[in-house]
Amino acid sequence: MHNILFTTDEKFAQHCGVCTVSLLKNNPRERFSIVVVGMGLSESSQKNLKACVNCFDNAVLEIVDFQKEKLIDFPQIGHYQKNIYLRLWVDEFFGDDVEKVLYLDVDTIVVDSISELFEIDLKDNVLASVNIPFATSHNRCHLPLEYEYFNSGVLIFNLKQWRLEDGRQKILDFLLKNSDIALNPDQDALNGVFYKKRLTLDYTYNAITPFFKKELFKKLGVRELSRIRENVKIVHFNGNARPWIYTCNHPYQRVYFKYLKYTPWSSYIPEDKSVFNYIKKQLRFMLGIESFVKLATVKGK
How far apart, in whole angstroms, are the C-alpha atoms of residue 80 and residue 252? Predict the structure, then answer.
């Protein structure tokens, strides 16, 4: 049984459902114990999230109502809501017998089997994660230049080491000391605290938006970018690349909507969907001004 953690609020409950369905559809031979941690989730959203799992026979779901009082000591940084810190209580959401937990941001979708992730030996590392190519956040995180900066949207937690290291307290200490410079709160802190205690995963396990842009990450080379796009396992719609916004032209937008059809939110229609915006989307490609690449094929069952 593989352990999965999602954290969400009411606004992102639908996307959590889509990510859950994408995980289960693309990994039918695996069995999952899924924990969704929410703050202020409505009864309707909780019911819908449970329905996303009930139609599969390879997963069980538990919903945890997180008490906001636990967040009192954590600083409010920038535009981020404090619920971004919920994943830091991972050790409380799973029992002492659980060794490994895969955390996924709910603005991701799984588009292929990720069974190999669960076979990784974390050894004495606290976590595993995916680097952001050419990131320049080192000074902000007190991260030595010889280490790369990673994105926290996909994380494998080694719970034994997380507990031994008192991970949550170390993150809090870092944030309290650096709240004026930690622009990406827990991501900066995770980098600043655990850069020596983490494994690096392949880019395909957290393909963030720039991998699908024409002009970004070009220094990786055509061959490497093609490899990542062709073998992507987890697509991360970070930044402004939100597929539930109709005018977004991310090449995996239609895959998001394909999985949406298997959820109770299947009737969702983007507020900005219109004939005008349809023409606008098409013209961007025709005129060569669209920043996203147009892939010949996309993955996802």
Answer: 25
